[in-house]
Model the fold of this input.
Amino acid sequence: MFDAILAGLMALATPQAILFMCIGVSYGLMVGILPGLGGIVALSLLLPFTYGHELAATLALLLGAHIATIWGGSVTSILFKVPGAAKSLALVFDGHPMAQNGEASRALGASAMAALLGGVMGAIFLAFSIPLVRPVMLALGPSEYLMMALWGLTIIATFSDGSLLKGLIATTLGLMLAYVGMDPVSGTPRFWFGSVYLLDGISFPVAMIGLFAVAEMMKLFVKGAQTADRVAGKEHSTVLEGVRDAFRHWWLVLRSSLLGLWIGVLPGVGASVGGLAAYAQAAQMSKTPERFGKGAVEGVIAPDATLGANEGGGLMPTLAFGIPGGESMAILLVAFLSMGIVPGPQMLISELDLVFAMVWIIVFANLLTTLIGLAISSKLARLPSLSPNVLVPTVLSVCFLGAFATRGLLEDVVVAALFGTLGYFMDKYDYSRANLVIAMVLAEMIERNLHISLGLYGNLFILTRPIALAMLLIIIVTTALPFIRRARGATRAGAAS
Done:
């Protein structure tokens, strides 16, 4: 194995490989910052450039770009409440409040360092744990995936501090919007109102751009120069503070990284679910959960550590079994096949040096992304202080361009505008946009796995699947925790008065 580790490292020691990694990381950062694009679009656009070059250099280009989009998507989530991609959604919950509180530099520093630490852990996992994880993967089925998606919905309690009823209404609306279009199992059209466009459903990136980005710009325009969201002259943090935060919360980084690895290993779950799950576990296990949603640095560290580790976890089933761990991994799988790389158990024997080359690429790409990110974070932190007259048209232009770029449809631009209006009024009347988006993310996973579970195991599948039953009990416990804490807080407040 040592020879394979050394051979993988030497494969990257060529000028072409180093150049391609730098190009991939720089390109990934730029694409990641654009709303609605992210790793899937970045990799898709690079596919034509995967021919005629060194194998290691091509892998460095692809994986470097993919990894860099993680932090690129975090930037706009933190600064403008505009998720660069679905997996960056959880960053807006505390990252943007930190920016509003004058701690944008700290948030960006914590984000970059957490992603690096998570990415390194993911690379180590990829290198050594493939034989250990295979039996675990085979033990899980649609019932267990269903429980994981339901667990993700328990996060609604975290964002329903003002009114649980309003939180439930927002969640229900998100589920209804997610079910527009064709049933993923039976193919039955639902809520399409005779429109061919709606048969494909509502594009999640487009809805997200509208709910957060367009809505925030509407809010900024309405409030004008006096808006409380402006942070001009209020930045009082440093990037180094964020770096120290990531190391100070080492236990949270470790927990979140392990969660990212686990979710990455599970085929078809995806990084967006991982980011939300990381945020949920950070809030539920915190001694001060009331700080979440108001600028808690832990709410930035947990999702980014998970997303960083998710890449190593997602590569594991892709390389070992030819089963992509998510949408981005599916694009990578196509690229592998076009380069003559055939994933499967045999690859771990005959091409072990290539596997370790990918491990080294993940490490170096994460390191390069973090170094660039830390170098430019202090300058990026000044962007929200721009005048609304400059900021609003600039961000809206990028948002509508991103909405159009997702599928090349003008209707998506209209949908982004409609969701922007919806998001503005939801924020105005204290309905949680986070709950709506979480429901949209998890709805298809819940529906698909429920259909399959009922078909395979019958109506009482929970009782016949011990792992699913154990996960259901965990869901009940974690859902009850916020209500127990509220009750205890009310009791203490009553006793004190």
